[in-house]
From TrEMBL:
Residues 277-299, 332-373 are annotated as: Disordered. ATP binds at residue 34. PANTHER family: MITOGEN-ACTIVATED PROTEIN KINASE KINASE KINASE 20-RELATED, SERINE_THREONINE-PROTEIN KINASE NEKL-3. GO terms for molecular function: ATP binding; protein serine/threonine kinase activity. It is an enzyme of class 2 (transferase). The lineage of its organism: Bacteria, Bacillati, Actinomycetota, Actinomycetes, Kitasatosporales. This is non-specific serine/threonine protein kinase. Its EC number is 2.7.11.1. The keyword ATP-binding applies. CDD domains: STKc_PknB_like.
Amino acid sequence: MAGRYRLVESIGQGGMGRVWRAADEILDRLVAVKEIRIDGPDAEDTRTRRERTLREARATARIDHPNVVRVYDVVDEGELLWIIMELVRGRSLERVTADDGPLGPVAAARVGLGLVAALQQVHARGVLHRDIKPGNVLVEGAGERIVLTDFGIAAMQDAKALTMVGMLVGSPDYMAPERVAGRPQGPPSDIWSVGATLCAALAGHSPFARDTTLATLHAVLHEEPRLPDNVGTLRGVLTGLLAKDPELRPDLAELETELRRTAFPEPTPTVRVGEMPRAELRSPPPDLATTPLPRLPEHPRHRRTTALAAAGVAAVIAIVVTAVLLTSGGTPPAHEAAVTPTPTPTVEGTARTRTLPPGAHEEAGGYAWKTPDGWRRDVKTGAEVHYTSPDGTQELLAKSSLARGKLIDAWRKSELDAHRGEDYRKLRLAETEFRGNPAVEWEYTFTLKGTPWHARLLGFDQDGKSFQVNTWYRPDVEESALRVYAEVKASFTVL
């Protein structure tokens, strides 16, 4: 195309055109090419579509910011217009939640901060995006970068807005009420769409999604949002973002402040040791696995907080994750219920059928395990699940991620940091094997608010992924705790 760009494969298609992965053979780099066919039903519609496309390219090309997709070139070939853009190596937020399950509040807040940074640049240049939704939010790598893309229906605020006669442009369940009603729009309209998008990150769907388009539009205009169950500390800010009156919504500066409270909670007084029960921390060390958070999937490194109920006594932990290590924490529990998922007897795959141990159930992270009945289940991400005993004296954790590097190296680094913990004492940290796979075991004791705890951690690599099966327990329940842990490890099955 244009004697320069070689189209490799189609990677997406929407109402405004098809997107290709392509090679720029002059600069020897991969790019994304958006193809828009200019074939309206009449000459006026064709002119409108061409003007819309060129406006999109000009508006986006004016912005040079890591949270906004970069536009490199525009090629005009008569019936076709091609916009050449940066190829973002990642998944859309829509795909992340579909593949890995909904995000937790901390991860969602991190996504929100990326969108705020993007809109600060976009709105400062007089541009409205007008179609912010999970499909137009890209998560690059392990979540280090959030990219707002597809300015297909953007319009300059200082110019007459373009319309598509007889066509609803945009996604109704992410449209601000004033846009649906045909009232004047402005930056608050994009901010409303950020709120709907963050709700979708937490729940997997818009808070206004209904069975039909008309029902969805009615919900946007007249109904209160159905906030996700795991909204946690984001409840207040999401309620404000989705206010029907644009003047009641927070501006970008206020939104950034609110999101940071959840994304980066203030550390608490004591130091976390490796992966211990929910504790209070200051300068916590990195976690154990050697890969980024698979949700959010590949996801940003973050500090998170969870609650551990223990016979009326609660302990709180904040967890920091470095750029190459996997998080193990969570925001205030997304789901708390003494419910064991329905057992799955076998796992059907293209290569083999695997029989699960009796009572084992599948998790979204690509593994199955048998967990104790009556324990509180707390899903942190699609790949990480916690179970807490009814009396709070033991906790179990399982999680998975992509394997990177040598497992023992990351664990040894975490162990060095762990020495800052209160009464930390290493009992064992060594390489071993688990079912023929390279593995690491780490056993240690520590004190939390005057109460002793014992930790036993197992990590292993298999088929290019890293898995962990961990437990923490009070020493006075060690005999029963070790029985539970042994049963859980014996049942752990990689799918």
